[in-house]
Write a structure and sequence with these properties.
This protein is of the alpha/beta class. It is 35% helix and 25% strand. It has one domain: 3-Layer(aba) Sandwich (Rossmann fold). The protein has six helices and ten strands; from the N terminus they run H-H-E-E-H-E-E-E-H-E-E-E-H-E-H-E. Helix 1 crosses helix 2.
């Protein structure tokens, strides 16, 4: 009987950590935001909060000696509006800059690349991204299988995320064990 009890306690602890992290993300992102800064798409605001907090739990091995962390967005969707409220905030001592990316030759200018739709990107580009020291994030339950390092998806009306640890290592990114514990699933 103690094993079942330990499993239940472990599950409760994981749920509590996830709930705490979500609350923390929302508070840190939105307490300083004015009503004009909050987008009209609350789900995208939550995704932007997740992305902001991902940057706190990831280390770039080849990080430039820059005071800026550039988050690039490849697409035209509503997430871009939500990401704009992160512009100027700090993470790991660096100031976040949001930049819209429309062509592959601009990718080397970013530390984080959010891809609106992996279907619209050539498979060669996705393979090339795996060799760069760039955190790639995409939406969809199969995003990590298709090449993203982090995939955001909706399950039971909640935003969840998956991590492809193999891709992260190939990109020379170090992901905190605290973040890995919250990911569902982690591909190793």
């Amino acid at each position: 009987m103690p094993r079942a009890s330990n499993h239940i306690q472990s599950h409760r602890m994981a749920c509590l950590i996830m709930l705490s992290l979500t609350a923390y993300m929302l508070v840190t992102c939105f307490c300083a935001a004015s009503p004009a800064e909050i987008s009209r798409h609350p789900e995208k605001d939550v995704e932007a909060a997740f992305i902001y907090n991902f940057t706190k739990f990831i280390k770039w091995r080849e990080h430039k000696d820059s005071v800026v962390l550039v988050i690039g967005y490849w697409g035209t969707g509503t997430l871009l509006d939500a990401l704009k409220m992160l512009h100027g905030k700090k993470t790991q001592g660096k100031i976040i800059h949001i930049k819209q990316i429309s062509h592959y030759n601009k990718i080397d200018q970013v530390d984080v690349l959010i891809i609106e739709n992996l279907k619209h990107i050539d498979e060669k580009i996705i393979k090339e991204l795996a060799r760069k020291n760039i955190l790639t994030i995409a939406e969809g339950p199969d995003a990590v299988e298709k090449g993203a390092i982090i995939g955001l998806y909706k399950k039971y009306n909640r935003i969840r995320f998956a991590i492809n640890l193999k891709k992260a290592k190939a990109s020379k990114l170090i992901i905190s064990s605290r973040l890995l514990k919250l990911a569902q699933p982690v591909i190793k």
